[in-house]
Design goal:
homodimer; alpha/beta; Rossmann fold; 30% helix; two-stranded antiparallel ribbon; 7-stranded mixed beta sheet; disordered N terminus; 15% strand
Chain lengths: 261, 261
């Protein structure tokens, strides 16, 4: 759990809370075997210094937990070998990108003001695409170009439709929200739709999560690919996250195999 | 998974996605026994008509998944007996409340513009208090008054410190983020701090969750108290949420019982 680095510490209670957070000692462990990936992709290589930028694409109707789950996951990662300060140890830097800086409304109507547009966003190393209503040519082009430079791209839930629209999933496996399997397969016949999955590694750098909370599992899996099982496990522990879907091969505990899906 | 009711349907793909979502048929089941509550509180009574307003208190540093988890949970609840339209079936209505309508920055820096202030917020039936930096007298007074009118109040993670500041937890059990147990007990000796819990029912209408993702479990538990086990189970299924911490008595699967906590 991380509060804003550099934000004003206006409350006495917060000092105490932050002190208590320091009790969590994160030790960078030996990288565990890369279980869970069904491809032969190399482990993701983190930069020796500097942040890992994580761009969250948000437009009208962005589904709350689709982005909030990975946001929390990435920001909670602490890599103690990066330096003594909490700011150094929080290696992932999340921000929001959209067509404009006009406020968008999430599912349920929360008002979020994007940090950047597709014109001025810093280069990300990871792009997160939640389910959303927007799918502008600018967005799709930005995803294509960012992916082409070898950055990681992950969709959550019906965000896979945006990713499929880019053509990047053609000929590759992918998953989606459980009621969308059929529609995804119908609309994008070149995509190999996999059912009952928390996440699927589509290419060495492109990943698709199942619905909603499964984005947390995919984010934890990507953390593991960068920093190993121990750091990912400590992140899950920090989040008090009890789901196990990020371990193993991405198979879902709850099977969505009813005939209508 | 709900997109914004009434929001413009600008994308052809969204029509297909929304159609696929309609495949999920939610049947209101027989209320199951009220397991999980350790108090003798009556089941929560939903209104026959109209929405259940859920106010999310947000100030600077609000921790993302603390509010996003319950937000997603409440908005995903569908009660089919309420009418044929999805808008009727989505009974919970979430909105944000703060000291002012100036944008706040969540943990990690996302910019959110509050919908209401403590002066003009609609009366909620549920108040959600995530961990955050703000604890203004206005906020605390608003929590006290809202609770006094019999509405449900739930804290998530270190949001329990705000709730404890109101005095409403004096003499009652409560839980918190796992590194904050000691600080909470030290600062509020009248609170009975419980460890290793996903959630604790503090009074008939006041609840406290553990850290971060455990807010989802508490929200699901509150959904169950209103609408029974089957509706809550269907909500978890809609969310593809695999955590089991909302079932049973709120005990955590992962025990945070190290000496330092």
């Amino acid at each position: 759990m991380a509060f804003l680095p550099g934000s004003p510490d206006t409350s006495g209670i917060m000092k105490k809370i932050q002190a208590s957070l320091l009790v969590v000692v994160v030790l960078e462990g030996v990288d565990s075997a890369q279980q869970g990936s069904r491809s032969s992709a190399a482990k993701l290589v983190p930069p020796a210094t500097g942040k890992i930028n994580v761009a969250f694409i948000l437009t009208e109707g962005s589904v709350m937990i689709d982005f909030a789950g990975p946001w929390e996951t990435f920001q909670d990662v602490m890599v103690s070998s990066r330096g003594p300060k909490m700011e150094d140890q929080h290696v992932f830097h999340p921000y929001t990108v959209s067509d404009s800086k006009n406020p968008i409304h999430t599912s349920g109507g929360m008002q979020i003001t994007p940090d950047y547009t597709f014109e001025d966003a810093p280069e990300p190393m990871i792009v997160v695409i939640p389910a959303q209503m927007g799918d502008s040519p600018k967005m799709l082009d930005w995803i294509r170009k960012t992916a082409a430079r070898g950055n990681v791209v992950m969709s959550v839930c019906n965000g896979v439709f945006n990713l499929a629209e880019t053509g990047l999933l053609d000929g590759h496996p992918a998953t989606s929200y459980h009621t969308s399997y059929q529609t995804l397969q119908h609309d994008f016949p070149k995509v190999q739709v996999e059912r009952g999955r928390r996440w699927v590694q589509s290419t060495p750098t492109i990943f698709t999560a199942g619905g909603l909370s499964s984005g947390i599992d995919l984010a934890l899996h990507i953390v593991e690919l960068y920093y190993g099982r121990d750091i990912a496990q400590e992140t899950a522990r920090t989040m008090e996250y009890e789901g196990q879907g990020w371990l193993g091969d991405g198979s879902a505990l709850v099977k969505y195999s009813r005939a209508q899906y």
